[in-house]
Amino acid sequence: MDYDTPLFFHVMSYAMEAEHDVIDMVSGNPDWGSPPGISDGLHEYADLGGADFQYPPSEGLRELREEIAARRDVDQSQVVVTCGGGEANYLAMARAMERESGDEFILTDPVYPYYPGKTKMLGATARFVATDEDGTLSPEAVREQASENTAGIVVNSPNNPTGAVYDEETMREFVSIAEEYDALLVSDEVYDHFDFSGKFTSALSFDSDNRIVTNSFSKTLAITGFRVGYAIFPPELVDVAKTRHMLTNVATSRPAQYAVLHALRETTPEYHEENRQLLKSRVETFTSALDAAGADYSEPDGAFYVMARFPDFPGTLSNVEKLIDEAGVAGMPGEAFGSSRDDWVRFALVTPEVEEAAERLADYFG
Amino acid sequence: MDYDTPLFFHVMSYAMEAEHDVIDMVSGNPDWGSPPGISDGLHEYADLGGADFQYPPSEGLRELREEIAARRDVDQSQVVVTCGGGEANYLAMARAMERESGDEFILTDPVYPYYPGKTKMLGATARFVATDEDGTLSPEAVREQASENTAGIVVNSPNNPTGAVYDEETMREFVSIAEEYDALLVSDEVYDHFDFSGKFTSALSFDSDNRIVTNSFSKTLAITGFRVGYAIFPPELVDVAKTRHMLTNVATSRPAQYAVLHALRETTPEYHEENRQLLKSRVETFTSALDAAGADYSEPDGAFYVMARFPDFPGTLSNVEKLIDEAGVAGMPGEAFGSSRDDWVRFALVTPEVEEAAERLADYFG
User: What's a single GO BP term from this record (chains A, B) (predicted)?
Assistant: First the structure.
């Protein structure tokens, strides 16, 4: 497994090329629409022109950094506005390698496939820690893999693909394992607005020089195409990260930053609450149908995904294609996420047709 | 010298903190305004919402890649749309290192400071080739530095900071030196629309598996803040570059890509011609004043910059600060661009106050 895109694109185009109607539950693109502040902000920006169309500060528009810093209760100098969560994780993992305190990353299995991809690109080695079947990641299991070779520990809560949300005690332990082994905890929290359990705890809750928090507005504001995210570094790690950001991208796209800033100021908590309620009801609809299909499934505490295991129907690529052909539902093969879930299929609940998809699966397997 | 930003920001903030009026000739931000297609495109995009706000293809919007490919007469599969020229050069130089055919980059002196910055970030070594005083870069001098350790040769034409434009024969030689030493020529052509000499030749003119061309819409469309550029790779090098692009940024910001596509379709050649004429007349105004000041100066064949050397006034940081304080004109110290021009100052002709700046310098030194 290198990174998910070849497989991802393969499944996407297989589904799109099908002549019958296929419900796309492959991608993680929200379908519930952005808050109006995004369009309003873009319109406002489009009329500025001139100097406002030129380079923003490399680390991000000052007012956007201030807004993020105020919300996250950190100093704005610790914030780097990035080209989405993708660049935020790249900067964080590169920063871990630059410390020259180990060249291994501890990753989970199942894993969000970009992490092993970045690990390889950075010339590091991945050590995988299997989660429990319910997606729980035991700090003890992480500690067993930690050593002086550990450069970083990369965790994602709420989790893609398992839907697990790590509680306060677990996150505290991850931070302290990182400290113990002079490594960096990279806590990817892009689904933080999609916690159904109330137990989500940001790694920022624990004061430490050994943790970097990454985040993005891609999911929060349903703008995966805008590419605006951020990373929050401990004070003594941030300067080198800013240098890499500058030498890689110079800066993050300004129209997108401007629209995000505008939307952050205008969007009420109700927007996020409605999206959570929508997702919770989709989870219910979908998992009821999985019951009818006789499948095992994850019950997500957060994020957008349900993993399912159908009886005598392992989630291989060829079975995923069969589901597309015969049931008209497209999911992601479990093998995209590591070895521990290769008999599962991941379904993204980002389509208004969740109910129809659920019925199709229940009919197919029922 | 690491990369120019600390010095750049130092000079910028020194100029901005001055209590008197200072004319900013430090940054490379065009002041002549974007073509209307940029704002129009952003407005159009802002109203799309929904699926159009989500992930574009990682390598860039299909129609934008097709537009670029048609204009550059390459196959669209060779095009990667990047976060500006900055990421394009990063991908190109990283690609040269990934071939494991050398770990040195041949750079010019004076040099655009991001190239040595990226060289260092990629763990490579820079070998500098001094240009002639008029900015000419001799292929012979490049060949003398080339060896089996050469991973890449990075050139920039029209050149920042010298204003040199390499002619057809010179570019052909650079390509053939790269081929000879199994290295990659990285030809950064972001100022291609600002050639006053008519002799600009793209490295794409020479069919070769050893050259990558990078470009950007930052200068061409006066949108340095949008961060849309591209790199054109030989067919057998492009896949790995696309992987790095995906693992670094996932994709380039979609609103900015959409606006660029719209502007490419709407903008007439007159827009570019007017900007060239404007710059040519600024060069004349400015260099006449430099004559009056008794200075040596570069006569740019392209790009936005004039380098000047004043009698008994080397272009050190402290003298640049003195010019800000006493003449009210801010330029960049020559030392930002390497050792060969450390007695020069670079002035960017991106302000309507070029004439006033010229008068101030003539008065100060006259």
Answer: amino acid metabolic process
Q: Which of B43, B250, B253 sits opposite A253 (nearest CB)?
A: B253
Alpha helix positions (H), chain A: 5-17, 36-46, 62-72, 84-98, 114-121, 139-145, 168-180, 217-220, 235-249, 254-266, 269-292, 317-322, 354-365
Distance (Å, rounded) from C-alpha A127 to C-alpha A141? 11
In A227-256, the residues whose Cβ lies within 8 Å of chain B are 227-228, 243-244, 246-256
- Chain region(s) in chain A for CATH 3.40.640.10: 54-266
Residue A7, pLDDT score: 78
Percent above pLDDT 90 for chain B: 91
Chain A contact set for B252 (CB, 8 A):
83, 227, 253
- Among A185, A207, A168, A166, which Cα is nearest to A74's? A207
Tokens describing residue A2? 């290198």
* Contact status of B214 with chain A (Cβ, < 8 Å): no
Between positions 70 and 99 of A, the ones with CB within 8 A of B are 83-84, 86-87, 90
Interface of A with B in 44-63 (CB under 8 A): 45-47, 49-56, 58
Q: Nearest residue on chain A to B12, judged by CA atoms?
A: A57
pLDDT at residue B5 in the model: 56
| pLDDT tops 90 at residue B38 | yes
| pLDDT score for B27 | 87
> Is residue A43 exposed (0-12), middle (13-18) or buried (19+ Cβ within 10 Å)?
middle
The residue among A140, A114, A124 whose CA lies nearest residue A338 is A114
ipTM of the complex: 0.96
B30 touches chain A (CB under 8 A): yes
C-alpha to C-alpha distance for B290 and B305, rounded to whole angstroms:
13
What does the pLDDT look like over B241-267, one tens digit per residue? 999 999 999 999 999 999 999 999 999
Which of A29, A45, A90 is facing B248, going by the closest CB pair? A90
Pick among 3.40.640.10, 3.20.20.80, 3.20.20.70, 1.25.40.10: CATH of B53-266: 3.40.640.10
C-alpha R_g of chain B? 20
Q: Is A224 on the interface with B (CB under 8 A)?
A: yes
Does the domain at A5-34+269-365 match CATH 3.30.300.20? Answer given as no
Q: Which residues of chain A does B90 touch, with a Cβ-Cβ cutoff of 8 Å?
A: 247-249
Cβ-Cβ contacts under 8 Å, A228 against chain B: 253
Task: Collect all residues with Cβ–Cβ distance below 8 Å to B343 and sequence separation of at least 6.
Answer: B309, B314, B315, B334
Q: Give the mean pLDDT per block of 10 residues along chain A (366 residues).
A: 59 86 93 98 98 96 98 98 98 97 97 95 97 93 98 98 97 98 98 97 98 98 98 97 96 98 98 98 95 94 96 93 96 92 95 94 91
Residues of chain B with CATH 3.40.640.10: 53-266
A29 touches chain B (CB under 8 A): yes
User: pLDDT digits over B124-161, tens only?
Assistant: 999 999 999 889 999 999 999 999 999 999 999 999 99
Q: Which CATH class is domain A54-266?
A: alpha beta
